[in-house]
Amino acid sequence: EAYLLHFRTQPYAQQVALKVLAATPSLRPTTKFNALNVLRDVLLKNWENLPAPARSAVRMQLFRMAVDPAFVKSTERFVVKQLLQLIAVVYKRAWFDGLPLPTGDRDVATRPSALQSELLQRIERLLTTTDVAGSGSGGGGGGGAPSSPSSSLDHRLTGAELATMIVQEFATSRSVAIGLSLDFHRRCCLNFGTLSLLGLFRLASNALADTVRSSTLSPPAGRSSSGTSADAAAAAQRQQIVMNLLKVSAERASEWVGG
Hints:
With 259 residues, the chain is mainly α.
């Protein structure tokens, strides 16, 4: 514990934490989990001192890691979820970067910023396409090879879980402490609810329909339509993850309208 506290204060902490996350699967999951916590603390503490290109670069690096099939398959699920939550936190911290902070409840932008559009486009590509190679080259393995059916499903699940993390993070009642005022959280919630929440809900609805359709009408090649118990369990898990996104989106919509 004392070592981690000391490590957070070192100028090389961010780069070392990123290297630990990208290291071989031989590392213990708790090591990667601690690296994510260190990375979150360091990024939030030094955010104001990071130039815009550095902020964009770290967002891209985290996203590439989250959609890298090799990383996802070799990393325990609780670590992957922590990574997705960190991505959500980083996007929220940057939500008004380069923009004037809204000064009143009616002072809400009428269209998403470039950063906000970037986030929604990335989630949409995960939920609706079979190949996310266009999300960025290098850094995440794959070398541009076409996605396999299993990796495409992994991408859709990642998209649904990331979207869930985003919706929860922008809800004032569920957000992670990022060292900013409650007013900042409230402005983010209002802006997100106005410009992004409905779009995410529509994406989740379409993803659920597509998941149900693919699990009932498209059995894996070489298998009978009856499938196996493992196939059924995997399909049920996929549907549950997407349904959870729908549920959380609906809850946050109610909170936003009512609040």
